[in-house]
Amino acid sequence: MDNQETPKAKKKTLKFKAEVAQLLDIVVNSLYTDREIFIRELISNASDALEKMRHLSLTKSEITGSDIPLEIRIESDEDSGTFAITDTGIGMTFDEAGTNLGTIAHSGSKEFIKKLSEGGEMDMSLIGQFGVGFYSAFMVSERVTVQTRSWEPAATGAIWSSEGKGSFNLREAEGITRGARILLTLKEDAKEFANADRIKDIIHKYSNFVPFPIFVNDDQVNTVGALWTKSKNEISDEDYKGFYQFVGNAHDDPTYRLHFAADAPLSIRAVLFVPGSNIEKMGLGKMDPGVHLYCRKVLIQSQAPDLLPEFFRFFRGVVDSEDIPLNISRETMQDSALIAKLRRVITKRLIKFLESEAKDDAEKFNKFFAEFGIMIKEGVWSDMEYRADLAKLLRFTSSKTEGDGLTSLDEYIERMPEDQKDIYYVLGGNRATIEAGPYLEAFRARDIEVLYLFDNADDFVMTSLREYEGKKLVPADQADIELPGEAKEEEDQPEEKLEEKDAGDLARWVKEALGEAIEEVRVSKRLVKSPAVLVNPDTMFTTGMQRVMQAVSKDSIPMSKMILEINPSHPILVHLNSLRLANPNDDFAKEASRLLLDNARISAGLAVDPRDMVERGNAILEHALKGMVDSK
Ligand code: ADP
What we know:
Blueprint: E1 11-15, H1 18-28, H2 37-59, E2 72-77, E3 82-87, H3 94-100, H4 109-117, E4 141-149, E5 157-162, E6 167-173, E7 179-186, H5 196-206, E8 214-216, E9 219-220, H6 237-247, E10 256-262, E11 268-274, E12 290-295, E13 298-301, E14 316-320, H7 330-334, H8 337-360, H9 362-382, H10 384-391, E15 397-398, H11 409-415, E16 423-427, H12 431-436, H13 441-445, E17 450-453, H14 456-465, E18 467-468, E19 471-475, H15 500-514, E20 520-523, E21 532-535, H16 543-552, E22 563-566, H17 571-582, H18 587-603, H19 610-631
Parallel strand pairs: 2-8, 12-14, 16-17, 16-19, 20-22
Antiparallel strand pairs: 1-6, 2-3, 3-7, 4-5, 4-7, 5-6, 8-9, 10-11, 11-14, 12-13, 15-17, 18-19, 21-22
Helix pairs in contact: 1-4, 8-9, 9-10, 9-14, 14-16, 15-17, 18-19
Adenosine-5'-diphosphate binds near residues 49, 92 and 100.
């Protein structure tokens, strides 16, 4: 190329934005083993630019170089240690080159860079997913030069160049063909990437599904063709995997894939994947949507945000629909009735698909749920439209599941005895805590299954759903719960049990001792082994919500009106009653009541003031020890 500078050509040296400089510092000095991924990243950028070009050429009349074929060419030279990749895509104007290759637009990338710089377990090969793929070129290069010319008729060419050390040069230049040419001067220890066979292997590995021809020193290396338009029996598992990794910018194996075609109510050709793992779990914020929208093989929008509901943002792949107009804009897409219809059809199809996968292989589905269940739950609480359908996909640990096993709500209902009307659940940190706590006792005694929820947000899922297949979802700590069936007798019956009247009097006395700290004290019909339990009469403001609010602010949130139930068969209550009868003003008995309430709060997962509780515990311990000594 002839890169003459005109006399008045713009020229400047600019500093990289802080995050870019930080990223480059890591990338330049990295001893990273998978350096080869830079080829994937540069090809992927070239392919994006070409997709945009293909779209523009169908919608715009004035374009620079409208007759140039859309393709990618790689040239390498082992002697000089250079690698150049040229595409005939949309290119960049002078200003665009300055912004696109010097700042970071992508929202998640800052977090990614932060984690990388902390030297954590962050995987460099994720770089493309965080919108900073271009900079991976600096893993292997001493210098990177970009010659580019935009498709816009008025634009001149530009040359960008940098050693990745804090700044870059940018100047206008004449004589550049539309598109971009990225020229790498390879580092001494990266000369292998000038070897044509090595380059071809890497392309086969990562970029075989790029929908434009890729040439390496004039040999075409990839098979071009839109995979989603082929019939399933022409496509191997390897092809699907390669396609997933390419379109999803991924490097794992997909968990599920769905390849389907429909002609009514809309024409749809789609290949969609569930990734192997959920990258949101790495704490990098929300992932971007991952499904690209095409119309007759022309990319309309990559990572289309309106194509699937938020909660399905983990799907990767391609949807091609002939019904979508080519010139639909981002803005019209949002409120287009057609896109809404497309979204509905695909979402329903995906839910059905997941349901049938769950039936075919429950264990595999449980693994899927462990990764992406959080987003299914998000759909249940946030999206009224799909709430009921998504509820079929929910999975829970329960008093009847074992090990890693999970149950669906349908399976729970199948196991319900005939006289059971509601579905019960309990919230707790883990199985052991729940099973040791007071809430399960009444259910266990009647052999009624209870779902275990381990996350405060799960409570929110249940309260949004409210019912399933006409059965109410009821928290186990709900006051006035009417359980079906008879409680089976405990094997070791208590030695002593308070008479009804004594128990009632004790409840009133405890309420007086506790004062405003509690709404009401009742004699429990549900408790078997525990001395006391807190129950919640409020079906709207659940205990789970109270926990969440307490976690946010311990002081300012008043507790809702909870009820303390006491167990008339428990020795603590029997003795407390004797103390009360001997002296209704006994301070020690009052302190003991307060400790009883503290303990019940802890069992309910609610916060207590630790200082008060420790003091109380110590006072009681002192008393007990003194009693032991005195009686010796
Ligand atoms: P991403 O491609 O994920 O946005 P990159 O760091 O790889 O992030 O690239 C930054 C930006 O530079 C791209 O968004 C694009 O605007 C521009 N760019 C990179 N490569 C090319 C190219 N070959 N042709 C045109 N623009 C490009």
